[in-house]
Each structure stands twice: as C-alpha cells, then as structure tokens.
Amino acid sequence: MTFVVTEACIRCKYTDCVDVCPVDAFREGPNFLVIDPDECIDCAVCVPECPVNAIYAEDDVPPGQRHFTPLNAELSRQWKPITHTKLALPDAEAWRMIENKLSELKQ
Question: Could you give the CA distance from residue 51 to residue 70 in angstroms, rounded to a whole number?
C-alpha cells in the first residue's frame, strides 16, 4: 500500500508534508504534488501535515478520487523530487476549499 495525493492539493501545493517524509517520496509539478508509490514506505507521517487533507492511504482514497492513484504513479515518473518545504502557491488560500479542480492540474 502507498499514500496518494488527491485533488485538494491542486492549485494549493502546500509542502508541509515534504519535510516529514523520511524517504523523499514526494514529486513536484507546477501546481500539484504527488507521491511516488515505489518510494513510499507507508509510514503515514505526511497525512496529518497536509493542511487541506489531500493525502490518503491508497485503500482509503474516496471513491470520486480514486483516479488519483494511477495519476500519482504516472506523474511521479515525470516530475522531480521535492525534499524541502517551499511556500504554497500565491493563491493557495483562495483555492483551498474549492472542489472539482482536476481541470486546473498542470502537468
């Protein structure tokens, strides 16, 4: 099992989760983070760090968000690792509670 970043991260990209990851499993895109399923050790320390509750255990991903599991795997092969906290996107607070943001994802 791995952990999965879901839609709530899109256009926010808070990176609080990155600093606590013991294996540097996070990958960074323009406006979203993903978890590399091959690197993730299922420790769950990232989950409580996410201020928008975007991270779930693979088995607990909500039904409407399950397409993010293969998307995390795909994008983790394309994007570079992120190992340190960065500032959230400038308009993150405005996007924090918005749903249905998949069309906003920049790959």
Answer: 23
Give whole-number Cα distances, 27 to 19, 34, 67, 68, 84, in Å. Answer: 12, 5, 17, 14, 11
Q: Which residues of the chain have pLDDT under 50?
A: none
What pLDDT is recorded for position 1? 77
Give residue-wise pLDDT tens across range 47-73: 999 999 999 999 999 999 999 999 999
Give the containing element (helix H, strand E) for 95. helix 92-95
**Which domains, and CATH codes, for the chain?**
3-85 (3.30.70.20)
Q: By the 8 A CB rule, do 50 and 16 touch?
A: yes
